[in-house]
C-alpha cells in the first residue's frame, strides 16, 4: 500500500531543503532519522489504520488497533529493513513503513503478525537485530488478508 505524505511532512522537507541550501558549504545533511522518522511512522500508521497510540515507553507495543490487537510500528527512510531489540512483550501485529522524503510518498512494506516478521530471529538476543528488506518483503507476501490491519476510510492520508 502506497500513500502520499501529508502536507505537514512536506513542509518539514521544504524546511530541511532550505537548510541544506543555506548551509550547503558546511556539508551538513540535515537528515530525517532517529526519533523523528519513528514519530512520523507512528502518526501516519495511527491515521491510516485508526490506531490508539500507547503512552511513551510502552516497550514492544506502540498502539492498539480498532479490533483490540496490539501493534508495533517501525519506520525507515533508508530503504533498509526494520531493526528490533529483544523485549519481553511482543505485539500481535507489526506495521513497517518506508518513507521517501524526496517524492513525499510512503509505503506499508509489512502489515501482519509480528511473529511472522520475526520468525527467523532467535528467541533471545542482545543489542539490535535487523530484518533484511528482502526478508520483510517476503514475509509480507505470505500474510493472509484476514491477518492484515485494514485501513480506515477517510483517514486523511491519500493512498496511491
Largest sheet: 6 strands, mixed
Strand order of the largest sheet: 1-7-6-4-3-2
Q: Which architecture per CATH?
A: 3-Layer(aba) Sandwich
Number of helices: 4
Task: Give the overall form.
Answer: globular
Please tell me the overall pLDDT: 93
Question: What share of the residues lie within helices?
Answer: 25-40%
Number of DSSP-assigned strands: 8
Low-confidence stretches: none
Q: How many separate structural domains? A: 1
Structure description:
This protein is an alpha+beta fold. The chain has one domain (2-147): PvuII Endonuclease, Chain A (3-Layer(aba) Sandwich). It has 4 helices and 8 strands; from the N terminus they run E-H-H-E-E-E-E-E-E-H-E-H. Strand 3 (63-64) and strand 4 form a beta hairpin.
Question: Could you give the topology of this structure?
Answer:
Layout: E1 2-4, H1 7-22, H2 34-49, E2 52-53, E3 63-64, E4 70-76, E5 83-85, E6 93-100, E7 105-113, H3 114-117, E8 128-130, H4 133-141
Parallel strand pairs: 4-6
Antiparallel strand pairs: 1-7, 2-3, 3-4, 5-8, 6-7
Amino acid at each position: 500500500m502506497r500513500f502520499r505524505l501529508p502536507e505537514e511532512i512536506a513542509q518539514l522537507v521544504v524546511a530541511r531543503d532550505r537548510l541544506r541550501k543555506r548551509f550547503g558549504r558546511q556539508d551538513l545533511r540535515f537528515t530525517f532519522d532517529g526519533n523523528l522518522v519513528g514519530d512520523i511512522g507512528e502518526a501516519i500508521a495511527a491515521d491510516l489504520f485508526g490506531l490508539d497510540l500507547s503512552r511513551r515507553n510502552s516497550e514492544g507495543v506502540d498502539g492498539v488497533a480498532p479490533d483490540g490487537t496490539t501493534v508495533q510500528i517501525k519506520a525507515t527512510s533508508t530503504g533498509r529493513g526494520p531493526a528490533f531489540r529483544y523485549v519481553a512483550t511482543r505485539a500481535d501485529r507489526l506495521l513497517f513503513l518506508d518513507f521517501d522524503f524526496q517524492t513525499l510518498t510512503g509505503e506499508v512494506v509489512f502489515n501482519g503478525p509480528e511473529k511472522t516478521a520475526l520468525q527467523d530471529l532467535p528467541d533471545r538476543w542482545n543489542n539490535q537485530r535487523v530484518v533484511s528488506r528482502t526478508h520483510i518483503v517476503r514475509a509480507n507476501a505470505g500474510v493472509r488478508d484476514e491477518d492484515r490491519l485494514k485501513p480506515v476510510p477517510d483517514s486523511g492520508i491519500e493512498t496511491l
